[in-house]
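re: ur question from the group chat, yeah i did fold both. here u go
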Amino acid sequence: MPLYRVSAPGNDQVHAWTLVTSQALDTAWRIAKGSVMLAVSFLVAALCYFKRLHLYLGRRLKWWIGYLQRKFKRNLSVEAEVDLLSYCAREWKGETPRAKLMRKAYEELFWRRHIKCVRQVKRDNYDALRSVLFQIFSQGLSFPSWMKEKDIVKLPEKLLFSQGCNWIQQYSFGPEKYTGSNVFGKLRKCVELLKTQWTEFSGIKDYHKRGSMCNILFSNAILEYKLYEALKFIMLYQVTEVYEQMKTKKVIPSLFRLLFSRETSCDPLSFMMNHLNSVGDTCGLEQIDMFILGYSLEVKIKVFRLFKFNSRDFEVCYPEEPLREWPEISLLTENDRHYHIPVF
């Protein structure tokens, strides 16, 4: 006769509670697992979003920083002093014959000429005028003697009415190429600005204050170009004056005899049309122009021509024989086209 096991009521209750608990835990786990996965997904999405936001904000911040720097940074046309040999090492790498020559020339300036730093000058067709005028102002040099005796603001009209130079209306203001009946008014404003600035700088005794004012002036392109056009006109005026002296058989400096012996500058008009009008536009100053500039401003311009190292033309002066004990300023050039300012 078969035997049947009869389960006790207590066992059924335990089994039921176990089953219910297991199902509850399984449900709770599924719910918790879903919540965790959802939270992780949300966290990953948030991290990706913030990463993209960070990159976007970084790019925008970089753009704004650059914009503000460009907007408010002074665009100095004469830069601050840098170590001469460091500048040379940066600019003249490699083993080409020219690079080796330049390195030797810079070493000569550093060790034997005691030039320790250099100021880089903006490279354009005004840079020779810029290099000279910057040093005149930064050193606080006084007016040339002839400028103290004349009101240079009236010189444009003087050329027209006293000397009949009506061709001055063809004067060209560098890249502006402005000519016309109002040329005298424009020239007068340029010369007046030169007189005002020169008077102000020469009256400042503190070297650091002159330096700060130079940084302000030589970051204003509009004022700068007016000053350079004034210098060009001063050169033209001196050429005209010496030409008139030559016509009356007076003795004139040899550099002007050389100037008037050229077909392209046989008189002031041809000098202006063929040479001076191009300065600031398509070319800078030639060597003969540097002589005239030094003569007109009564300064001795010493130029270290680095590409002429180990030759007699390595160091030249404009003019070669100053008529008096004129103050001296120095330039350096690597090619006779662009100039920088050496600092002793």
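okk and heres the other one u asked abt
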Amino acid sequence: MKLRLRSPKVVQDSSVAGEAEVDERSSQSCWANMPSELLREVLIRIEESEDKWPSRKNVVACAGVCRGWREIMKEVVKTPQVSGRITFPISVKQPGPRDTLLQCFIKRNQSSQTYHLYLSLSQALADDGKFLLAARRCRRPTCTDYIVSLNTDDMSKGSKTYIGKLRSNFLGTKFVVYDALPPHAGNRMAKSRSTRLVGTKQVSARIPPGNYPVAHISYELNVLGARGPRRMHCVMDQIPASSIKPGGVAPTQIDLPTGSADYFPLFRSKSSKFEKSVSSPSDDPTEGSLVLRNKAPRWHEQLQCWCLNFHGRVTVASVKNFQLVASPENGQRGPEHEKVILQFGKVGKDVFTMDYRYPISAFQAFAICLSSFDTKIACE
């Protein structure tokens, strides 16, 4: 009877693999067991020094070392509202800075019907930028959908990187912005065909599928047929009108559910309840939602065109260019109603700048700008 002996090479490989696994565990425990005071001081210095992309990727890398590092980085890294920086994926769902416009730009690919949002890394109107979001246009018989994703290679509603969509009516004059996650506790999911696909292959089981309406956009009909600027009207359903006032608060998503933790490992929640993952906008049921209107342009006699002051951020005249400001609740206009909350304009054939501020997020601003790309049969 012959006995088969294991190959020495296999035995050697198993031994090496075992030693490597032990070394990895000991190395991780070494980093994880650093004194918390020393670790916090080190991470604070890293966060302060790496304040711009691409060097800011080191901040993200620190948050991925272990659970202890991740929890400290979540405390050290402030939201865009406070820091004016976009660091983690959840940042695109959080309101922008209060005092300044966060400068971004959109690149359009007309052949593939896709749009990519980038964070500007310099004052130049065209640079490489830091990728933030991608959208794909899907034309349907009665409407048009723009699927928004965190992944440029997978822009489908069934993807775990899907974060929301924009839907228009047939004429392209009315739009609804849907969020894949509820912006605050108690928000109801809209009834649509997409919400009835739960359990099928078209919806991923990793993320709770849903269409939560967060904004309604409308363009006024141009019944006279005159060539002129578009008139926009945006109702931010989940943002109270008081958010633009001093001390006002807008809903801020601070965590993601456990189902999406494999794609967002830096924001793993201990509970799947949304009450603990987001802050509620307001407890006053009588308070109205924030309404945004496009800033009225002025007619330039010498140039024979409508003009707005984009402070050098827009270089090409286009009917798509706009600036949005808050509309007064009771007709009483204050200084907070003069601040531009979102501006969008053309700088090249397929390049557009997008600058936004508090109380809207990058996702909401991107969705509003996507509505400007859609064909307006009745408005032009």
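fwiw on the second one: The first helix runs from residue 8 to 32. The radius of gyration is 24 Å. idk if thats what u expected
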